Every structure is written in structure tokens, then in C-alpha cells.
Amino acid sequence: MLISGAKIVVETLIEQGCDTVFGYPGGQVIKLFDELYLCRDRINHILTAHEQGASHAADGYARATGKVGVVIATSGPGATNLVTGIATAYLDSVPMVAITGNVPCSLIGRDSFQEVDIVGVTMPITKHNFIVKNITELADTLRMAFKIAKSGRPGPVLVDIPKDIQVAQCEFEPKNQPVIPAPIPFAPDDKLEKAAELINAAERPYIYFGGGIITGKASGELIALAEKIDAPMGCSLMGLSAVPSDHPLFLGMQGMHGHFASSIAEDEADLVIALGARFSDRATGNKKRFAQNFKIIHIDIDGAELHKNISADLGIKGDIKDAAARLTELAEAKSHPQWHQRISELRSEEKLRTEKALQASYQKSCENCSTSCGNNSLTTEQKLRPYDIIDIISAHAGDSVVATDVGQHQMWAAQRYPLKKPRTFLTSGGLGTMGFGMGAAIGAAIATGKHTVLFTGDGSFGMNLNELATAVSQNIPLVIVIMNNGVLGMVRQWQTLFFDKHYSNTTLARQTDFVKLAEAFGARSTRVFSKDELEKAAAEAFAFNGTYVIDCAVDCDEFVLPMLPPGGSIDDIITDIK
Amino acid sequence: MDQYVIGVIVSNVSGVLSRVSGMFTRRGFNIDCLTVGETESSGFSRITVAFRGDDEIKERIVQQLQKLHDVREVEVLNRNETVIRELLLIKVRNKTETRQDIMTAVEIFRSKIVDYSPTALVCELTGETSKIDAFIELLKPYGIMEMCRTGIVAIERGDNCLKTVK
Q1: I want to staple A170 with a disulfide (CB 3.0 to 4.6 A). Which of A135, A351, A405, A474 is the partner?
Q2: ipTM, 2 dp
Q3: d(CA A111, nearest CA chain B) in Å
Q4: How far separated are the first and last CA of chain A, in Å rounded?
């Protein structure tokens, strides 16, 4: 039967198992949206306030489920508004298919109204992209897009479909099942045997894992390996949630704002086993100083990551789940009491240093504070500290998915939030996209159908708060926790430490009333200054089946600690403020 | 730094050259030269890239190229086992007092004069890069009006082949 290109798109999406798409209509996708209307009982389209929000929502949907997130936008500005969302997904290896309309083929290249070469624009931030100029290739191109997005190391794929292709008619043969990802290469035996030898010989092994463990569904295998070889574990930001936060061998995130114990333990190890991680500069600090004292085994599905940032002594390309399982079999069961003695010391020292740092900033007053943090009148005991906020919210949140924006609040959440199972911590790790959180939280809430928590700051929230409209209109159970300190806290922290307190453009001093703003969007909201008030607000927010904004007053000079200065190393770790 | 030559078989689709050259640009690798042309099968093109770098850079380039969807085969060609050629077209001034010297150079280098006019000579030369460089150097004093060179193409000796996917 002859059907239109637009209908082929919708039928292929449904065939690929896609039940929800995020997007925004426009002139060059009007035909596609007509088909979405006609098929609205089979596929759900979520209208966002802005295409960027839609792209982050598709990303959040994918991160929370492991499925491919789909976003649709029109040509020109619609397409370019997706760019930050696509780049965010690319840097964090999130499977996504972005569909854009374009001007009819005959108008391409003539700077037509709302024409942009989105394939050219997104070439460096997609795994691959397509423009479909022949309707007979449309269905298979979309199938290939899904295949590429979810094969191997996942990532975003863009398919640009000119308007005339959406209108043209073509035969369509549906397939019975979604495309199967390309087979994953298995790690070679000899290399795993070599790895096992290194592990058996190690006295102070340390496992550094990343987001690959979550993507590769390898949490169980990772824990089994760690327990058998008796190795402590630390992770990158992207690795968070792969292992329960309270696992006895888990020391927390390492790196620039990582836990003291994990960062130091890694430095003192004699063997680092890196699994599904890529040695980002934020995780390693100064590369010349990093890895002076230990050997490295690096296992990753992407061969291009081996020896890219750090030269490993043994690089192994392969499926992480399989490799970890086989490595566990090959390695000898070990016990390293001395090493764990040292780890306990580090944990104790971390505790002391954290308390000392907290105490120090307790005593600081908010004097000369020109910001709107609103904390000035409170006694120190009453003040809401960042960790208190995380603790109180997590106590109410149950097994909610947690999304974050980018900045200090993100690091506090990464350090402190007790995570229980994979895919419950959604954060922009690689690109560090402020404004990621609103869309991501909406996508996750729609995917899971459960309460989702968003930790954000007044800076990040300001970037994409228009998506409150989406959350309210979709009646999404969302608890938005704004750590409102009236400043761009992370940059302010750098300015305090490295730029002689020149607070250039980081003092927001806005007069925005977030409570009124949230209410204007139709959400519920309250502003809290103390722990008691937050307790009350949290109870109310999680009991409410809708969007609830809690605006928390936070001191503008709270620091994220510890900190490895940019370009610095473990020797320069800052755990206290002068 | 050594120069490496790699052969890349790619799908013959629109945009493939941008993808390959774009990878070099955005990852900060420098290209000495890049050529692209048809292969024995119509669905595939062959790109020859020469670049300078160390072993680590070479390895990263190969790995990144292999990740591109349109790239089917990547191989670092062993220079000792590879025929490498470049084509030069060069236009020099045709003056009575230097004509004979140019003709001699053309003969010794096994070049060919492919266009002759009262004021200019166009010579064609095929060979390895070093031979082309030497020929250009030799012609400089006679007044080079313009020149263009193709960049290298390379193929392995014997029955080693960069397989195209059928």
C-alpha cells in the first residue's frame, strides 16, 4: 500500500518500539505532526516549551530506561535548538534519534526560509547523521538510525527529512521487530589472562568505573569482580548509580570534586582497573601527575578510548559485562587486609576533613553579601546546608530517579545522594549543560511514571525554566529543589580561589520570586530557609501528584569540597577553605 | 615525527569526505595530504591520507576513523611494501635561453611536456613525493608560473589488498 513519508516515519517509530516522542511542531514537519495526530492512540507526543527542552527530555527518557529517546523538531531554528541536547547526549553516550524537517529538496542550498544545514552542523556531535532525499530509503534510514544509536557505545543519530519526502508516497513494508544492535566484540582471551595476571600480582588494586557499567548492564559483574579480588571502587560522575552508594567496597566518585578517599586511594593503588570509563580530565586531574604510581588495565567497548586520554599498560576492547564476568573467573580470590586498613584510614580522614570544612563554613558569616541568598538573618544552626537539603530530600524520595542541572548543586548531589540502583542518577557529565535538568527530569518522569527529583540551582533553573509549562500541562510528578544562593556558585568558587574574589558576572542579584513564578506556571511552590521548613515542604511535595518547586535558601559562599584545582593533581587537593 | 600513509575504504555517499576530514580537524590531527577517488566497485571510494605524528597519534587516528559509520576499512600502509605516487603539473616560463636546460631536466626526471606555447611549458611528472620536490626545486630558477600536485595515492605491493566490502 502506498503511504506518505510522514506516515512511514510514524509507522517506523512504532515498529522500533517507540511509545513516546518529544518535540515541537513547525512549518517543515507539519505533515509529520498530522500523522502523529492521526496515530495519537499508538504513540504519545509530548509538546515541550522549547526544542532544547524536548532534546533533554528525550535524553532523560533514554537515560532512565536504556531505550532510544526520540525528539522531533522543525527545520532551521527548530533544528539548531536541538544542538545542545544532541551534544549533551553525544558526550554522555546516550542513545537518541533526532528527527528534523527540512525545506523541500528543490529549495535546499538556496538559503530558503528556515533552512539550515543541520546535517553539517551536527556532524561532530552525532554518531552519524542522514539526510533523506529519496523516499524509498526513508524507512531503512530510520531503522539504521536506531541501530547506530543503540549499537556498541550508544549515542545520538540525526535524520533530516525534507518536506517533500514527508509528503511523497511510497510502499511501506513493516518489520515485525525493532532492529537488533550490532554484535558486540568480546575481549580476547589472551588479554583477559594477562589482566588476571596483573590483578593476581597486585597488592593494592583499585577499580575505577564509569557510565559504561550502566550502559553495559554490568553492575552485578562489577561488584562480583570487586568482591573476589577485594578491590575498593571509585567512579566517574557518569558511573554513579551503577553500584549502591552504601556498598562496603565503594568509596564514591573520584576526581575534581570526588571523595577524598577514592581520589587518594586511586593514587596509592598499585593497579587501577578502569572499566567502562574514559579518564576524563575531570576524573584524573593533571595527566602528567596521574598514574605515576600504578599500572592501568583499561577495558572499554570503544577501542578509540583506549590510550586516548591515558596510556594504559593493558588496553582491552570488548563488552564490559562479558569481560568483567570472565575476568572474575580468571582472577584469584584475594584478600588485602593491609590495603583495606589504609582505605579505612582514608575514610576516617575524609570524615574528619569533611566535618572540619563544614564547620569552617558554618562560622563564616554572610557579611558583605550582596546576593539574594536570604540567609543573613538566620543563626548558623538554622541555616540550610547543601548536604542537609540532599539528606532531607533523599529521605522522602524513596526510589525516585534523580536528575540534576550543572554546578555546585550537581556536585553536592553526586557526592551525597544515596543511590540504590542503576539509571537513577541523570546528570550532564561530559558536556556540563546548565539547563539540562528540567527536560531530563520530565523525560525520566514520563518514562518511569513515578516521582522524579530535580536538584538545580538558581542559575541552571533560569536557563530552561520554561519547561515548567510542560511539567504542569503533562501533570508530571516532579519535585524541583532549587539550591538558591543568588550566585553562579561554581564559578564564584573558582573566582574566590583563583581570581582574587573578582566576582565578575556571577552575582545574579535577580529579583525573581521563584514561588510566584512557579505558581504562575500552575505549579505548587514554597520557599524554605530552615531544615524544619524543608522537612515540611518535602513531605508535602512528595504527597502531591504534580509539579512542586521547593526554593531553598543557601549561603552564597558554600563551597564544593574537596576540590582538585583545574589542571592540578591529587597533590593539590583542597579540603578546607582559608 | 614520521609520516604515515593510511588507506581508507569508504562508502561512496554524499558527505563522506566531510566526515573523514572533519574528524581530523576536530580532534586536532594535521593532514599532509588527502586524495579521494573511485575504486573497482562503484559503491566505495578510496581515500589516501598522509599525516605526520608518532605511533600514538597514528593509533588514535585509525581508531577514530574506524568509528565512522561510512568507513569500511582502514589500514596503515607499510612504506617499504607500498607503491606511493603523486602527479605534478607545472607551468614554467618558455624562454630561449633556458629552454634546453628545462628539456634536459624533463628528460632526466622522465617527465613529459604536455603543453607547449611560445611563453610557457607545462610539464607532467609522476613519482614519489621526494622526486616531485626535487624536480620543482630544479625548475625554480627558470620561473614557475603555476603548479598543482595531486597528493599521494598508495597501493600495497604483492597480493595484499585493502578489501572493499561486497
Answers
A1: A135
A2: 0.90
A3: 19
A4: 74
